[in-house]
Amino acid sequence: MSFPEMDTLFTLHGVDPNKLLDLTIKWLFGPGLRILSILFLAWVAIRGGRVFIDRSLNLTLRDSGENAVADIETIKRRNTLNALFSTVLRVAVVILAALMVFRELAFEIGPILASAGVVGLALGFGAQSLVKDIITGAFIVLEGQFSVGDVVKIGDRSGVVESLGLRTTILRDLEGTAHIVPNGKIEVVSVMTRDWSQLVLDVDVAYDTDLDQAVEAIQRVLNEYAQEFPSNVLGKPQVLGVESFGDNSVKIRSTLKTAPSKQWDAGRIIRSRIKGEFDRLGIAIPFQQNVAWRIPEHQKALNSDQAS
Known about the structure:
This protein is 55% helix and 18% strand. By secondary structure, it is of the alpha+beta class. Strand 1 (10-11) and strand 2 form a beta hairpin. Helix 2 (17-60) runs antiparallel to helix 3, helix 4 crosses helix 5 (128-143) and helix 6 crosses helix 7 (263-281). The relative contact order is 0.07.
């Protein structure tokens, strides 16, 4: 709707309703219809693009069905790339659609594009940390350093990777707290669920325990768990033997190679079963305690006579 047409709306008696209706119909079947078409095509582009991204990643990163660990890593990498590419697609389509709508509303998009260029230049000089975050995030995703669903430790924060973007990584710990870490601040990442995990199990027994019997009981519990949960176990359980001598106990160490992130579930089940097995065999698990010695009265008198 041009300015000359707007001028004809107003008369000495106010707004001409017939002229307003004509201009409204003309706008609806002109720029209005084109704006609706732009919004519809933008929605179709986003939906169609997400389907294309999903199918392309499914074809490129396909599950082998032979190696459970490799399949888990493939799924996590596919989910991470899917979320990243979908976000980039959505932002690009929205920006392009907004510029086209502005043009239909008779806004000059030239100054907008020029302003965007100036803003981009200012960001290049003033937001160096933002650029660093984005570059680091791109390398994390492309190199597959870690993925959504991995349990990682970044600095003094640890948790499950809930979101992995170009600028930030979000960790969710056991208490439900979300830790938002800028990618540019990530220097060393400890990934506890990459390819495989391992349970290191230390069990303390009393000094008067039959060590051979204790080792046999622990090995039996580990073997039973491996037979019951074969998908969680990737290697033969091993009882390494005596690890150290404590103040009131002997430490026996065992290891179990598990599928990623399954070491914690395995540890809880195995510890509970070892406690039950030790109770059945009468093997004592030492605990801190204080012992009081009672001196008989005649011994107290004898000690007093000797002191005097």
